[in-house]
Amino acid sequence: MSNLLDLLVAGLATGAIYALVAVGFTLLWQTSQTINFAQGEFVMLPAFLMLAVMHAGAPFWLAIILGILLSLLLLGFGFKLLLVDPMLRHGVLPLAIATMALAIGMKEAVKQFFSAEASPFPSIVPAGDVSILGRVVSLQSLGVLALAIAVVIGLTMLLNRTSIGHQMQATAQNPTVARIIGVPVERMILLTFLINAFLVALASLLITPIYLAKFSSGEVLGQAAFIAAIVGGFNQVRGAIAGGLLIGVVDNLAAAYVSTQYRAAVPLILLIVIILFRPQGLLGRPEERTV
Amino acid sequence: MTATAKYLRIALGIAVIAALIIVPMNFNRYGLYILSQWAVMTIAAMGLNLTLGYAGQVSLAQGAFVGIGAYAAAIMTTQGGMPLIAALGVAIVLCFAIGWILGYPALRVQHHYLAFVTLAFSTLAFLVFRNEDWLTKGIYGISNIPRPNVMGFATNRPLPFYYFCLGSLGIVSLAMWWLIRSPWGRAFVALRENPIRALSLGIDTRRYTLMAFAIGSALGGVAGTLYAPLTQYIDPVPFNLSLSLDLLMMVIVGGSGFFFGPFLGAMIAVLLPEWLRFTQGYYLMLYAVAVMLLLIYSPTGILGILDRYLAERRTKAASALRAVTKSRLETAP
Question: Given B109, B112, B121, which is nearest A96 (Cβ)?
Fold first, then answer.
């Protein structure tokens, strides 16, 4: 138990990153009925974009800015205009499957054009430890946790306290009525895609130093985001946040106390249990739509 | 007209079956392996087609069910000394039961949760395959898996084993054909076409969806039971999430909801790596892009395109006939 505090902080840090990805995933579902199975690969790609910019000789801070801008362009605009818009007329299911094909394509593209080897990635938080309550805690975990929390708070305030946020929520709840009262629905949906692109780019920036940049890392990240979104409540942004934090902590504790071999299994079992006993999620409410 | 088309179809079917039997006699070991793999993957894809094409649910665990079947066959034939037919029975029951247990909670909600639950199960199954050395021998795998004797005939050599796979595919195809034409099959089609109307007609959509998923999972187990003696060595690697995605792409490309979709999709998926060998590592990337483009153009795959073309031709013919009849009526008085 002497390492419990460090485990909790590290778990919360990882969980906060999962929360970012899960929030983006949930927003896409809410506003445009898009189930994005490539969400994990969306987190994988920005790190490689940033690495590519740095390979061209640019400093780290410029790579971050360009990486985020490229993410907005490719994973926001590009994703919506090239794949979601053409596919959505066919229904939710074909679109979900198209995102699976997209995930495969992205993974193989990075593998071919960059490298199949894992690459180290610099961290925006300096290395080192800090002492809290007599326990040593990683500064990187604390930094990541603080930054992720700040972004989540900012996003929550955007959604709940601004006019644009209210319009986005109106679009999510009932696009038809929102359109009638004058909300520019299409613009709100596009904004959601851009927010998702920004969130995954930020998550990529925060988590890649921990996990290394590798073409196959999207699979693990994607699963964590899906589990977080469902555990927290598929139709609730705050549920995705709670779900992400919970998954991060459970994952870390499982690795320490259960088994490193089965650490990935504990969140999966949690998912199945949640769906079995509380399908609307911890913070969700049963969704009822008129037929 | 209709009778001629029917006879033509029967003749075409007989020709294809004859080709599948005669042509491979000249193939080498590798060619026969590829064809056998096509037969095995088609069985797994047919199971997934039942889940996806007829019940409208995405399963990402079909690869795991193939793995369960393969391990059941490997363990029972090498360690238990039992015949493959016994392993087949165990695989079917096991996969059906797991499919039912897995599907029951997921299908209570309407957000395509089955995709996520099966995704989770896929990873869980892989972890079990890899870590439970006492049962699966972990990453070292199980080797020297024997091939079965069928009514006294040995299938150790490539050609007899190919015929064994082809025969198994034939049996599964007949069973699937019967299933689709039974009242169950009509219920499956009804809940795919319009779940709400099916519900109003008294069909228990949840139970039928669950049944479709469980049967589809069992067919994955059947495919796995054939896969083990095909390769004669199994380890966890082939049965990860990639196989599930590959099978899903097979169903989508060939045409989900069409009886022959899995055959076509499996052919493309198994043979494409051979055709595109010159592209080296870019093949999977190109394949993924092609799948996305196909989905944009026709979500029901290649057979969906053909079906649309034939429907349009039928419409044109009917319009022309109606115009001729109308002009005759006008000139009559």
Answer: B112
pLDDT digits (tens, 9 = 90+) for B13-50: 888 877 777 777 777 778 888 888 888 899 999 899 88
B245 CB neighbours in chain A (<8 A) are: 100, 104
Assign residue A35 a region (left: φ > 0; alpha: ψ between -120 and 50; beta: otherwise): beta
Which of A104, A112, A234 faces B281 most closely, judged by CB atoms?
A112
The DSSP bridge pattern shows strands B153-154 and A135-138 to be unpaired
In the block, tokens 């649309």 appear at: B308
d(CA A26, CA A207): 20
ipTM (interface predicted TM)? 0.81
- CB contact under 8 Å between A279 and B296, yes or no, is no
Residue B108: count of CB within 10 angstroms of its CB: 12
Contact across the interface for B108 and A96, Cβ inside 8 Å? no
| CB neighbourhood size of B165 (10 A) | 25
The continuous run of DSSP H or E covering B24 comes out as none
The nearest alpha carbon in chain A to B138 belongs to A261
pLDDT in tens, B50-81: 888 888 788 888 999 999 999 888 888 888 77
More confident call, B65 vs A250: B65
Q: Which two tokens stand for residue B311?
A: 């429907």
Rounded distance between C-alpha atoms, residue B113 and residue B117, angstroms: 6
Tell me the chain B residues in contact with residue A87 when contact means C-beta distances shorter than 8 Å.
295-296, 299
